[in-house]
Design goal:
alpha/beta; 9 helices; 2 domains; five-stranded mixed sheet; Collagenase (Catalytic Domain)
Length: 215
């Protein structure tokens, strides 16, 4: 079964029917806002979203894409490009709750997860490059999907973790949301457009974030 808008095609199964309309409404509203954030990037080819109704099938698909023998127990979403098409794999709500750390997650969390992955599609379209500093790529995704809105202000990551990964997603959110609030959307787009500029700016931004959250 499928539903679509101008940006995505969503594939789902009958077991998702009780909440699918609410989920699609959220995708329709949020995807437009995010595309606008990235200056209206082109979606000549729509992104494909697949909701898996079987956790093992999801993990096997992800491992095949990655070429790995094991998927992390917490994994619930993946974005990748194949044959010039962007794809988003996520679990449906029932299977999502079976992954590590997500047993109490709700439909709101699933909405945010899908939009998180859609942000990854958009930043890759905008930069034509999947490789960004982790604080910027995951900061974009967590902030624009509103996954940590209202969380307690705290920050405890090293600069290396913000660049390469290895810390809580909340830290990426805290750094990115500070930078977005302080410098604005156009500054974020400039960081996306110029890797050298991003590399030069990140240590300074990190020090600002440390000072800001230590007050």
């Amino acid at each position: 079964m499928k539903k679509s808008n101008e940006y995505v095609v969503l594939e789902y199964t009958e077991c998702d029917s009780s909440y699918i309309n609410e989920l699609v409404d959220h995708i329709n509203l949020s995807s437009k806002e995010i595309v606008d954030f990235f200056d209206g990037i082109s979606f000549q080819e729509k992104a494909n979203i697949k909701l898996f109704d079987n956790l093992d099938a999801f993990r096997n698909s992800c491992m095949k894409i990655w070429g790995k023998k094991e998927a992390p127990a917490w994994l619930c979403g993946l974005t990748f490009k194949m044959n010039n098409y962007y794809n988003i794999y996520t679990l449906n709500l029932e299977e999502y709750k079976k992954t590590e750390g997500h047993n109490k997650h709700t439909l709101t969390d699933l909405k945010q997860l899908i939009i998180h992955e859609f942000v990854h599609v958009c930043h890759r379209k905008y930069t034509n490059d999947a490789k960004l500093m982790v604080w910027l790529s995951e900061g974009l995704a967590t902030t624009l999907s509103h996954q940590y809105d209202g969380c307690k202000d705290s920050f405890d990551a090293t600069l290396e973790q913000m660049i390469s990964g290895g810390t809580k997603y909340k830290n990426y959110y805290m750094m990115f949301s500070y930078v977005l609030t302080t410098y604005g959307r156009n500054y974020i787009l400039k960081l996306l457009e110029n890797k050298e500029y991003l590399s030069n700016e990140t240590p300074r931004l990190y020090e600002e974030v440390i000072n800001y959250y230590s007050k």
